[in-house]
Specification:
Structural class of chain A: alpha+beta
Helix content of chain A: 40-55%
Oligomer: homodimer
Strand content of chain A: 15-25%
Number of domains of chain A: 2
Strand order of the largest sheet of chain A: 1-3-2
Radius of gyration of chain A: 17 Å
Largest sheet of chain A: 3 strands, antiparallel
Distance between the termini of chain A: 39 Å
Chain lengths: 141, 141
DNA sequence: CTTGATTTTGAAATTCAATATCAATTATAT
DNA sequence: ATATAATTGATATTGAATTTCAAAATCAAG
């Protein structure tokens, strides 16, 4: 967790931006949360500690955290962007249940390998990817 | 193309909905277009033929076409939902260039196979999936 | 310190795609 | 024909995300 803060500081420095109280506090809260929350979710949690922080700052900070590669946007299909931090979590994809909305995190190294191979075929340099499989989970069928 | 219209009619009938002039016209225009257009793009094209059609109807019809599996939503990362029709196009994924925004359609049967296998591991019944690889295309590097 | 240039902040206003509302119109089965 | 239900388009509304802007905070250089 200290690691993430250092990454953030380095990223900000590189971009000539500053580590402010608000940004630090938002990052700390974010890292402690359950993952996959929306900007509004995070705003509501942050607000409990510091009622003076504004929504806009939370939005802005989440964007920065994505830029610093500490957070990742996830689109679960409702109109809301969710964010997950990478603290202690490897890359993974999602199996999303279209009945109950729950999702499973999953990863297959073989698929990852083939994705890279597919890119090579098109002389395309991959940076990151999203793979979301929608369907019906065990409980719902 | 006649096939798609039949699929649409069958789908509407199944749902106790009606094939109206507007829906028919929107589908026809949609199938003729280049693919990956937003609801607004389609609205602007449809309007040239029939100025009386409303935006809401285009939105609603695109949703129906997705339900009928004639169209597919694509999220290219800007805030706009794009739609592509499946007329003469197999399922594919996208390699999206983060520099120029252009994208490549690509498909790997081996990946598809492994995706199904991955789902089986979680007792998850897949319906459809999105796979988008973001990176830098040949021209941009 | 103090200054000055720059960045950041929060509140509020704004944007924009997408959806909901609603009275008028249209389709379809009987 | 008629009754029932679905559809339409104009408009208003929603809601996430972004922008604006004046005030506050940061930081480097004197």
């Amino acid at each position: 967790m200290a690691k993430e803060i250092q990454i953030f500081i380095d990223y900000l420095k590189k971009k000539n931006l500053k580590l402010t109280d608000q940004r630090g506090r938002i990052l700390n809260v974010f890292l402690k949360t359950q993952r996959h929350l929306s900007a509004e979710d995070l705003y509501n949690i942050v607000r409990k500690n510091d009622a003076s922080i504004g929504q806009a700052t939370v939005f802005r900070t989440l964007k920065l955290l994505c830029g610093a590669d500490i957070a990742k946007e996830v689109d679960l299909g409702d109109g809301k962007t969710r964010y997950e931090h990478k603290c202690g979590h490897e890359h993974h994809d999602h199996l999303i249940c279209t009945r109950c909305g729950r999702f499973i995190e999953a990863m297959d190294p073989e698929i990852e390998r083939l994705q890279k191979k597919l890119c090579r075929r098109f002389a395309f340099t991959p940076q990151y990817h999203k793979m979301e499989i929608f369907g019906v989970c065990k409980k719902c069928r």
